[in-house]
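Summary of Year 1 activities. Much of the first year was spent building the evaluation harness for sequence design. The harness presents a backbone, in tokenized form, and records the residue chosen at every position. We chose the following record to illustrate the format because it has been used consistently in internal testing since the harness was completed.
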């Protein structure tokens, strides 16, 4: 056997095994999500919760994202919105919501501009600096996610287990309008979402998680956050080092509106991978090897098959068979992912149907883009996030290179162009708003 054939057999065999195992993981994720939905409890917990929501600028649908935070069916919580500056355009939206809400204690904190720490972490440090004496649990949510009314209750219930230090959800993107960039981003994010299992693999997602106050203080997380950029990956690192388990709650998988072009999509993915390379190098290397080798095996085999057909080579059936098997396994994985999306977002699934079809049948293209971005993340440690430019250093420390001007003031809801009708997937009739998880 030639060395080239041996290399190809190793790559092809590894890619097929990987696709099969990821298919099993996707099936198990869906089974666990359904199980948690069936056994969700209605009784409320009484632990006092501080819900922290860092904000910057006016994102798509900001008011509709933040309003549910003041209408959770949890009886004992308060909300802290945190901004960088009193001039932040988000402040106007937050103040309108605060003026209309009288049931939940809510405050708006101005953290000031960060100098040696990521702005989001700077905001979190400001919000957790002087915790009220009666707060027992701290919950965190991102301003681009849209929680359902039972989100906080279900997240906190996962901390019933005395062994659990923290509980986490994740996000499920909902494209605002059809576009290739949004669909690729949707597919890559869906693949990441189904990696979570019952024990969360020690990972928290910063947009939907909660931690016991005693564990938060005992872990030294506030000190670990200082001088860093990624709140959730640093939290994951600290909790793993302290052997504090993290549990995953499928009912806290939050829909997040997705509106971006191709440049923004590539920038977002590279930024995520550069951050991952900095904070979780071992996991990033495993992911890099899996993603790049799988894409290389498929596209290399496709080129070899085309060459074999053109030359009438006897070995042509081998790459053809591999491509067919790899594609079939990924179609099954895509189907399982999208049936999981139906579990998570039943009332919004009609808005996801075209994205789901893309995710099911466009795996070769998604794998190619994903591998290309991971390769791009190999080079450089400089990223731009929310208008601020940072240089990342191994271990997680950062240096702020430049800051943004005024935060972006985008329309809270995208205007509909009559030539290109846009259906807002987040505006549903009242009778449709009850999630199956409730």
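For this record, the design step produced the sequence shown next.
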């Amino acid at each position: 056997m030639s060395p080239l054939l041996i290399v190809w057999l190793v790559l092809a065999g590894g890619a097929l095994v990987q696709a099969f195992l990821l298919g099993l993981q996707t099936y198990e994720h869906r089974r666990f999500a359904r199980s948690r939905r069936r056994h969700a409890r209605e009784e409320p917990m009484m632990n006092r919760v501080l819900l922290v929501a860092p904000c910057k600028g006016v994102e798509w649908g900001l008011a509709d994202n933040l309003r549910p935070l003041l209408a959770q069916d949890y009886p004992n919580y308060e909300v802290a919105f945190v901004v960088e500056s009193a001039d932040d355009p988000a402040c106007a939206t937050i103040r309108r919501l605060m003026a209309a809400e009288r049931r939940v204690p809510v405050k708006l904190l101005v953290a000031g501009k960060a100098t040696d720490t990521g702005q989001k972490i700077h905001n979190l440090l400001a919000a957790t600096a002087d915790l009220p004496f009666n707060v027992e649990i701290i919950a965190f949510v991102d301003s681009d996610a849209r929680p359902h009314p039972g989100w906080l209750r279900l997240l906190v219930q996962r901390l019933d287990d005395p062994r659990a230090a923290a509980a986490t959800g994740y996000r499920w993107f909902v494209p605002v309008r059809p576009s290739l960039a949004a669909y690729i981003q949707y597919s890559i994010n869906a693949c990441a979402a189904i990696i979570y299992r019952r024990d969360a693999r020690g990972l928290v997602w910063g947009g939907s998680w909660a931690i016991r106050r005693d564990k938060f203080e005992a872990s030294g997380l506030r000190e670990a956050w200082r001088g860093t950029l990624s709140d959730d990956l640093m939290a994951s690192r600290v909790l793993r080092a302290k052997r504090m388990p993290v549990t995953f709650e499928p009912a806290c998988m939050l829909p997040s509106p997705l509106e971006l072009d191709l440049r923004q999509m590539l920038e977002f993915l590279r930024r995520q991978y550069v951050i991952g390379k900095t904070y979780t190098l071992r996991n990033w290397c495993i992911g890099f090897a899996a993603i790049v080798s799988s894409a290389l095996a498929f596209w290399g085999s496709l080129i070899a098959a085309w060459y074999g057909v053109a030359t009438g080579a006897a070995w042509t059936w081998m790459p053809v068979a591999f491509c067919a098997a790899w594609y079939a396994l990924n179609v099954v994985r895509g189907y399982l992912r999208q049936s999981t999306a139906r579990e998570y977002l039943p009332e919004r699934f009609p808005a996801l149907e075209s994205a789901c079809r893309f995710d099911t049948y466009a795996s070769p293209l998604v794998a190619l883009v994903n591998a290309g971005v991971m390769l791009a993340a190999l080079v450089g440690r400089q990223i731009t996030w929310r208008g601020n430019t940072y240089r990342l250093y191994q271990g997680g420390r950062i240096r702020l290179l430049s800051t943004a001007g005024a935060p972006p003031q985008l329309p809270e809801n995208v205007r509909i162009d009559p030539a290109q009708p846009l259906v807002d997937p987040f505006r549903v009739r009242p009778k449709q708003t009850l999630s199956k998880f409730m």
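The chain has two domains: 3-23+282-402, 41-272. Quantitative recovery figures across the full test set are reported in Table 2.
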